Amino acid sequence: MSSNQDPAFEDLLAYLKENRGFDFTGYKRPSLMRRVGVRMNVVGEESYRSYRDYLEVHPNEFAYLFNTVLINVTSFFRDPESWHYLAKTILPQIVDRKGNGEEIRIWSAGCASGEEPYTIALLLAEQLGQDAYRERVKIYATDVDEEALTWARQATYTPERIEPVPEDLRERYFEQVGGSYVLDNDLRRGVVFGRHDLVQDAPISRLDLLVCRNTLIYFSGETQRHVLARFHFALKDEGYLYLGNAELMLTQAHLFESTGLKHHVFRRTPQATLRDRMVVLTQAGDPDAATQLGTYVRLREVAFHKEPVAQAVVDCRGHLVLANEALRDLFDLDPRDVGRPLQDLEFSYRPLELRARIDQAYAEERTVTTDGVERARRGAPSQYMDVHVTPLRNNGAEYLGVSITFVDVTEIQDLRKEVDQTAQELETAYEELQSTNEELETTNEELQSSNEELQTTNEELHSTNEEMETMNEELQSTNEELQAMNEELQQRTGELDQSNLFLASILGSLSAGLVVVDRELQVLLWNRRAEDLWGLRADEVEGRSLLNLDIGLPVGELREPLHRVLDDAEEVPELEVAAVNRRGRRIVCRLSLSSLHAD
Fold it and tell me: Between 3.30.750, 3.30.450, 3.40.50, 3.20.20, what CATH number should domain 515-591 receive?
């Protein structure tokens, strides 16, 4: 509390905020005390303490007090020249920046009885047409005075209040009902009214235009900064702020730039960084922004320490002020080393002298880079680093210190060595290739000589070719004879194939198993009934010795009878032997052996 504030009056304001939610603490004290004094004179109270007691006893007095304090002075097209500038310059720019069908968002803060937001609605309906207005425009109109908002929602005005509206707009958008004028319902639906405290409540966001005319003049300088910071947050980039003729951008001028100083229209200036925006809101007393700013600062600190590239920051006095985890791990630094003079730390001179390069960076005002610095390590291969020393300025002004980064380029250095070795190998290969090329030239001369010899030989071959032509005619005649023989052979083969098919059909139809063997007892034929009896296919037994087949027939007992039949020594009568078929059943098999003779 400042020294010129009346404790009793401040106590009255606290009582109003606590009991009715009206926060007047941000209002300018002289005008506020004057307005409260007017109401005190009406009810006959002489001190703020007695008036507070009066409010406790007479609850209806709150409404009369607020109507006295909240000066609802407004009208249609108030300050016509400024509204003309807005209609002809600002609104067309807003519409042009929007894509087809994109919503246009406008906030009329401190709208009182609604003339101001309805003025905006009239201008946009003219600018876009009523159909596009209905689809695209959203106007938010707010005030702390509920009674004024109730009047505004009715959109009904006396002839005196409607007089500033141009006659053509009056005829198009107002309907006369009795002795009053009622705004067109389509325009009315585009305006949303609601209670809003500029000091306490969160701002409406993503706005193209914010109209707040002659409202800030009642606030103190600190409260104005707070509200303007919120306005900056509420507007889109390149959004516009339209203030009253009695208001100037004396605070937070860096947040807005004037587009029509005479008409008090300002354009939002985008902040360079998120941190700048949070600082602005923090300075304006926004507790959420202060929390976010702390988080932002902590996030930057954590990001610096987790950066994989080793980095240190040294101030102008030569003291180490920052060292991230990668740097501490690289040079085995202790967190307590932060704050010590750089010259007392080993990494200031090993693996290279840093202080001379820091002086060079200051003197030349540029980043000083030293490539391929070798750092020896015990029990491990050497490490190579690129060291960058960058001077740090305060927004381009005085030096704050230097940033030193150590970039590990060991892998790159190894690759360079491999590239150098490969280059040497390529050079050697090139010399060998050049020698080989000379040998090829010599060989080419020899080949040219050989080519001449081949031309002579070609002539001889030409003569030989003529003889070959004669022989070819004779061979052609022989080929014709062979072709005739081949046709006859094909005919015979066809007949043989028919015979084989006929024989296979006969053999397949036999109900007895049939096996044909040659003189060495190798199987030549094995019919289907034999397959069924003994469980072996023809392709499994053909070419094998019958006596070596593992089947249920005792083939060893057939050796002697077979040789007798093959040698025509004697006729062999039918044999009966015990056997086991492929299903494992015991059977008695009757065998008939006979020889085949070719006539």
Answer: 3.30.450
